[in-house]
Amino acid sequence: MIRGFLLLMLATLLWSGNYIAGRLLAPAMPALVLNGVRWTLSALELYIILMFTGKRLPLREKWREFLLLGFVGMFIFSALTYLGLHSTPAAQAGMISGLIPVAILFFGVFILKDKGSRMAWFGSLVSVIGVLVLLGGHAGSGFTVSLGDVEILAAAGSWGLYTVLGKRFGRDMDPLTLTAGAAVFGAIPSDIAGLFSFSPHAFHMTSTAWMALVYVSTAASVIAYFAWTVGVERVGASRAAAWMNLLPVWTAVSGIVMLGERMTTVQMIGGALVLLGAVFAGRR
Asked: What are the residue boundaries of the EamA domain, all occurrences included (predicted)?
């Protein structure tokens, strides 16, 4: 159980870097092109890993499951995230994504018939309050909602659905196979959308942008998705929900260290509430 929580924590930490990298890549290449490149590389890496481990990828037998997971979790979630990062700061995007546990618990009720424990709901409520405090304490933004905020919010709902579906389909598949299959089918619509938005004049790649691209296609994709899938399998979707609220905390810290952003006292209080809620949600 402890290892499962550590894997969830690792996944959220790596995903926080995805917001930083996405923000750095915003002026370097179109968002949909970035999403296509990311998942093409990630699918290739995961397929190679499967070959070395001797596992078989049942693309034909499980195409419906992989198609749904790939479309919701890889294409929709990532595309909306990168589109939102064009106008929304990384720290604020991470804070909005802290509402993902609400989506996980909501979809879990209808898809998994998992109502969740009272402690899980209470912990999620505390974490949501923490996210609202973080948003309210963001210097100069208040509660103003932009198009980027809406895109990040829609991405949060998409990720909640992906998590619950992954729990359901993961009953007869191991996490590596599940993630690899979803990445393969997620890369297809991502590449198609990327081709429609492709423009040679829209690329302004620097050494930093290239490093960010490598990060989003490896650490934020292969490693993070695998860690999250394994963690959900070990602790359950309802318990995993509130741990996603660690994302705004990691994103705020990464923004301070890497982008020179600042945190107000109110934001630090909100971050403490997010952590407290995650701890409550993880208790039996």
From this structure: 3-135, 148-281
Let me know: does 48 contact 217? Beta carbons within 8 Å: no
- Residue 36 DSSP SS3: helix
Distance from C-alpha of 165 to C-alpha of 75, rounded to nearest angstrom: 15
Q: Which residue has the tokens 């909100």?
A: 270
Residue range 201-230, pLDDT digits in tens: 889 999 999 999 999 989 988 888 888 888
Claim: this prediction has a pTM higher than 0.85: no
Question: Maximum distance among all alpha carbons in the chain?
Answer: 54
**How many angstroms separate the Cα of 25 from the Cα of each of 28, 205, 215?**
5, 8, 11
pLDDT of residue 165: 92
Q: Give the pLDDT score at 283.
A: 57
Cα separation, 170 vs 88, in Å, equals 33
Burial environment of residue 139 by CB neighbours within 10 A (0 to 12, 13 to 18, 19 or more): exposed
Residue 24, amino acid: L
What mean pLDDT value characterizes the chain? 85
What tokens appear for 12 in the block?
């959220």
Instruction: Using alpha carbons, select from 45, 32, 75, 252 the residue that is nearest to residue 161.
Output: 75
Q: Is 143 exposed, middle or buried (0-12, 13-18, 19+ CB in 10 A)?
A: exposed
Separation CA 256–CA 91 (nearest Å): 9
Beta-carbon contacts of 90 under 8 Å, excluding residues fewer than 6 positions away, are 19, 20, 22, 23, 251, 254, 255, 259, 261
pLDDT tens-digit series, residues 6-40: 999 999 999 889 999 998 999 999 999 999 999 99
What is the per-residue pLDDT across 73-104, written as a single tens digit (0 to 9) for each?
999 999 999 999 988 888 778 777 877 877 88
In the chain, what are the helix, strand and coil shares in percent, each to the nearest 5? 80, 0, 20
